[in-house]
């Protein structure tokens, strides 16, 4: 079964024949009304959508995350800032269990190893912990606690008896007025949640790592939260209930860090606006950079083959890298040495770049950066047992994020690839087209999913937002 998001819809697709198992919401035109009738959103009243004679456009699904048990899926809808949890049945049906509206738009989500907690990061730098399965009792208790805290009036340490000058009295009055006004306007979250940690810069990604007795350095179970931000930082924090304790940093990026990937628990691969992806051994007191894999030359060659870019004769030094996704794929080669491929996607580049790591997490000796050409710009990747399914942008020309594709039906929105041996005498493996799975996905590729023709600018903002993280000359990040 494959779960895919297309605009405001979530599709459940059979991998056996490509048939559509279910769609959420069942009808897009009634999604807003159905959400309101069947379930009250858990969140600030000011964030709820108002119903009128003309139904509002449904919010787009921006994130999908399947639980380790494969029994639940977490989805983020952008415009209403909601985190939604669905139960996934064996026949592919999706049942929404909860929707919780966050104070700021979520930009990254992860699950703890036991699937009990959702880690939700927003662009203002905060990471919240939400129970995957919320209960009315816990939500009611959290709401009461929030209301009690909000009802307590602010009491400054200074009073009229300790402040004597006219200027200080005026400052005290303004302080009281400002605090009371803030208490009136800030609506508390009316569901169980915990603020775990915060960055002073724009948060870009979050990951959760758990070590057992066998893999932990001190032979004790340990868990950590890894976060990255626009200010080139990668922070290592302890897992709850000690998330406020910072264990260390992985420092070395010169541009923003947009994606974190863990081929092994102690090995981190990070990428963003630099020419290279960085490989770290981060476990322990002294995280260290072990390797860099340069992407520039491979990205330039991939773009040079595209009509949208080839005519402009872009110089290699003018190419900018913006890593938009990283995924891991574990396989066993013929010599039965397990290895993990790290797949990297760059914004607006119609290819996946990949390299291999051994079971230790170290780069494979002599391994080069390899390229898997695609028919369009990759949006996301789903990893299966021996294959991957790549979501392709069929609205823009291959290699461009601004030039509209004239014939959107010429390119499949889903492409499948299988990891297979090169030949009988070659021990190497590589990615090649999975014709059987591609045939099954033809039905899914023909499914109409958009409510209406998307606004071109809104579509670019939805699909391509990584390059905008790059700082321009003299720019400072708010709060830094």
Automatic annotation (TrEMBL):
- Indicate, by first and last residue, each region the UniProt record lists as having compositional bias (Polar residues): 22-33
Q: Which GO terms describe its biological process?
A: tRNA (guanine-N7)-methylation
- The organism's superkingdom is given as Eukaryota
Q: Which GO terms describe its cellular component?
A: cytosol; nucleus; tRNA methyltransferase complex
UniProt pathway: tRNA modification; N(7)-methylguanine-tRNA biosynthesis
The subcellular location is: Nucleus
Q: Which UniProt keywords apply?
A: Nucleus, Repeat, tRNA processing, WD repeat
InterPro entries, alphabetized: Trm82 (IPR028884), WD40/YVTN_repeat-like_dom_sf (IPR015943), WD40_repeat_dom_sf (IPR036322)
Segments carrying the region annotation (Disordered) are: 22-60
What role is this protein assigned? Required for the formation of N(7)-methylguanine at position 46 (m7G46) in tRNA. In the complex, it is required to stabilize and induce conformational changes of the catalytic subunit.
Question: What family does this belong to?
Answer: Belongs to the WD repeat TRM82 family.
**What is this protein called in UniProt?**
Uncharacterized protein
Write the lineage as a comma-separated list. Answer: Eukaryota, Fungi, Dikarya, Ascomycota, Pezizomycotina
